[in-house]
Specification:
Radius of gyration of chain B: 19 Å
Largest sheet of chain A: 6 strands, mixed
Strand order of the largest sheet of chain A: 10-12-11-14-15-16
Mean pLDDT of chain A: 97
Oligomer: heterodimer
CATH architecture of chain B: 3-Layer(aba) Sandwich
Strand content of chain A: 15-25%
Distance between the termini of chain B: 36 Å
Low-confidence stretches of chain B: none
Helix content of chain A: 40-55%
Helix content of chain B: 25-40%
Number of domains of chain A: 2
Low-confidence stretches of chain A: none
CATH class of chain B: Alpha Beta
Shape of chain A: globular
CATH topology of chain B: Rossmann fold
CATH class of the largest domain in chain A: Alpha Beta
Order of helices and strands of chain A: EHEHEHEHHEHEHEEHEHEEHEEHEHEHEH
Structural class of chain A: alpha/beta
Distance between the termini of chain A: 66 Å
Order of helices and strands of chain B: HEEHEHHEHEHEHHEEHH
CATH superfamily of chain B: Thiamin diphosphate (ThDP)-binding fold, Pyr/PP domains
CATH topology of the largest domain in chain A: Rossmann fold
Shape of chain B: globular
Largest interface: A-B, 42 and 47 residues
Mean pLDDT of chain B: 97
Number of helices of chain B: 10
Chain lengths: ~425, ~300
């Protein structure tokens, strides 16, 4: 095995290459574009065998991805943010086709206002679509997760498309040392695509994605998709085990870091968990029993695992890099529902931060741990917090002052 | 399918491939055209469907197609065709399927998608040179939802969203020209009521590779308000009055395959349909009738 410096985007492309994907319907969008450029180059040079087609929109791209998977080839695609939302009708649609393929989403904040840097609202917009979702925190994990995602989605007990998520900028454009598995080992882990009878062939005519009339067949097929997604929980554990045996790297559904004896844990997903780890180390040095649970598998949601891992924990600082307007952090809601009714369930404190690439500083992690610890001691959940520092607010006021002066000077708003 | 060239009615296929008992309306002009077209295209086809009336052809667990079918969404059927075509090409190239398992990709769409929401995906597919046949049944409105006006609705037609005294204020969009501006390999207008003309064009389109449009005017008893038994007659009148020119585009040139001579007055066509009744009752709207006739005359003045 070789260890090289790769960006998260480069790692995603390598994952697709090692999965020997036949077909890549594509559409450019920042910060994802490097993935499709890399794959286009490899198809051009013959390092990969297959075809990349540049569509005219993500809506078409997801349609083509689903249609090609329904014809019986291994498909890969990638998008981000507005692109994922533009394709959202088809995200829901192709999940119901029960055709496995992998879509890498490079997370980026959603308009409005339009921006470039990362948060998880784009991914969470696809939460209920039927796609499975694996959320990465390192470049190595991106490569590994693409391979895992194909095994998972293509498993006869599952048969669903999978999103592999990485954070824009913090992972997509950050070089980290990545071990690139040998092609033969990757092929051992992930055999050639077996369409399992879902295909279009002249000798075997078939109708796919047909309409239904009424709630009875509709409910049946919707329930089937849900049950398949639930099947993916044990299947994921099995596959992650096989992956670890093959490559020596563990990728559990929920990553734990110094959480065994922790009475306060951070709960979050994505690359900022690396910052949380550093904060945990700092707090441990100061004698605090703090740990981290990082959610890797967003869908299916590993509810039982979380309950088991959080038994004995007194407080959880849930850090949401997303915001459901009018409700709050989505992970907070998800975790609360998972723990509801659990005996001696830990107290949850909700924090929203890291929107649109905003940093979460070490002091903020310390403060969140302290707030959560105090709340757990008092037995009352604190009001949800929207992370924002006084310095940030001062900077924002300066921008507003500039805007106000400009409007006055140019005669606008008169 | 026999590969002989169709010259006379006798040459048309005598076996019919599309099953009966579909939920299309009685007298559906689109279904009539589809019957004729499917007999010629055959079953080694995959119909990639955009949301519209004909989405209801394949409702679980039934389908009238002996070949294959994929429903996509309203806007992206051409992209679905792209995915299927690309996948089949890859499988053929890699010898993972035998050549005889190949299929022709056919997009089946109504005018609602074809003239509006689906234009971007269609334009993209043509510019990529996708090898597909694009079959649009044009009933000049969003028929499946109760005939609201679409980009295909003709001037003055009454629809459920243009029920005023002057009907629809816009003009029917020229989809044929939008296609030919892309320089596809083939484009044609057809109508089910002229089966020989239709068959000749389908035969031609079938032999070509690349983006191909077949645009079928689809008289619609429910949307246009006429008795279902009139479908064929109204279709013929659409041609004889010159309101629906039968033509094809090949090698960069447009040729009219039927030049009606003499052309019947356009009101012979309009008065057969309830959607134009307000042009005749309670009083003849001479101005509007004149306007419609003048447009048809101007079109043919450029042809003849």
């Amino acid at each position: 095995m070789t260890r090289v410096l790769l960006t998260g985007n480069g790692a995603a492309a390598w994952g697709a290459r090692l999965a020997r994907v036949d077909y890549v319907p594509a559409f450019p969008i920042t910060p994802q574009t490097e993935i499709i450029e890399t794959l286009a180059r490899w198809y051009d040079t013959g390092e990969m065998r297959g075809r990349l087609t540049l569509l005219e929109s993500e809506h078409s791209m997801i349609t083509a991805a689903g249609a090609a998977a329904a014809t019986g080839v291994r498909v890969f695609s990638a998008t981000s943010s507005q692109g994922l939302l533009y394709g959202m009708e088809m995200i829901y649609t192709v999940a119901g086709w029960r055709v496995p393929f992998v879509l890498v989403n490079v997370s980026r904040g959603l308009a409005s206002p339009i921006t470039l840097e990362s948060d998880h609202n784009d991914l969470l917009a696809a939460r209920d679509s039927g796609f499975l979702a694996i959320v990465c925190a390192t470049c190595q994990e991106v490569l590994d997760s693409v391979l895992l995602a194909y095994r998972l989605g293509e498993d006869p007990r599952v048969r669903l498309p999978v999103i592999v998520n990485l954070d824009g900028f913090t992972l997509s454009f950050t070089r980290e040392p990545v071990e690139i598995p040998e092609a033969a080992r990757a092929a051992d882990f992930l055999p050639a695509f077996d369409p399992q009878g879902i295909s279009f062939r002249a000798s075997q005519p078939s109708s796919q994605a047909v309409a239904v009339l009424g709630g009875t067949p509709y409910s049946y097929f919707r329930y089937e998709t849900h049950l398949a997604a639930l099947n993916a929980l044990p299947v994921y554990d099995e596959i992650a085990g096989a992956f670890e045996q093959c490559f020596g790297r563990a990728h559990p559904a929920v990553e734990t870091y110094r959480a065994d004896d922790a009475d306060v844990v951070f709960f979050m997903m994505g690359a900022f968990a690396t910052k949380a780890k550093a904060a945990v180390d700092g707090l441990r040095e100061a004698g605090e029993r703090v740990g981290l649970l990082r959610l890797r598998l967003l869908r299916p949601f590993p509810e039982a695992r979380l309950r088991a891992l959080l038994a004995g924990t007194r407080g959880v600082a849930v850090i949401d890099q997303n915001l459901s307007n009018g409700k709050g952090g989505v992970l907070h809601t998800e975790l609360a529902s998972a723990l509801y009714g659990m005996r001696d369930a830990p107290l949850l404190a909700s924090f929203v931060g890291g929107l649109g690439g905003r940093d979460i500083g070490a002091e903020e992690f310390y403060e969140m741990a302290a707030v959560t610890r105090r709340a757990a001691q008092g037995g009352v959940a604190p009001a949800p917090r929207l992370l924002y520092t006084a310095t940030e607010l001062r900077e924002m006021r300066k921008l507003q002052a500039v805007a106000a002066v400009e409007r006055l000077e140019t005669g606008g708003g008169q | 399918m026999s590969e002989h060239v169709i010259q006379r009615m006798k040459d048309l296929p005598s076996t019919h491939l599309l099953g009966s008992g579909t939920p299309m309306c009685a007298g559906c002009g689109g279904l009539g055209a589809l019957h004729e077209i499917y007999d010629l295209l055959g079953t080694r086809t995959v119909f990639v469907n955009a949301a519209g009336c004909m989405t209801l052809l394949s409702v679980y667990p039934f389908t009238p197609f002996r070949g294959s079918w994929l429903y996509t969404a309203m806007a992206s059927a051409p992209a679905g065709a792209q995915g299927v075509r690309d996948a089949l090409d890859i499988l053929l190239e890699h010898k993972r399927i035998p050549p005889e398992d190949d299929l022709s990709t056919v997009v089946l769409t109504g005018d609602g998608a074809a003239y509006g929401m689906g234009l971007s995906a269609t334009s993209g597919a043509i510019e990529r040179g996708l090898d597909f046949l694009y079959l649009c049944y044009d009933n000049e409105g969003y028929g499946n939802t109760g005939q609201q006006f679409s980009g295909a609705t003709p001037h003055a037609a009454r629809t459920s969203t243009s029920a005023g005294a002057r009907g629809y204020s816009g003009e029917k969009k020229d989809l044929f020209s939008i296609w030919t501006a892309h320089r596809p390999v083939y484009a044609a207008t057809v109508i089910g009521a002229e089966p020989l003309d239709l068959a000749k064009k389908i035969e031609k389109a079938k032999r070509l590779t690349g983006p191909r449009l077949v645009l079928a005017l689809a008289p619609c008893p429910t949307g246009w308000d006429f008795d279902p038994q009139q479908t064929v007659e109204i279709g013929r009148l659409a041609v004889r009055t010159g309101i629906w020119p039968l033509k094809e585009y090949l090698d960069g040139k447009v040729v009219h395959t039927r030049v009606p001579h003499p052309r019947q007055p356009v009101e012979d066509y309009l008065k057969t349909q309830g959607r134009f009744r307000h042009l005749f009752e309670p009083a003849r709207n001479e101005a509007l009738l004149g306007e419609i006739q003048a447009r048809v005359d101007a079109y043919w003045a450029n042809v003849e």
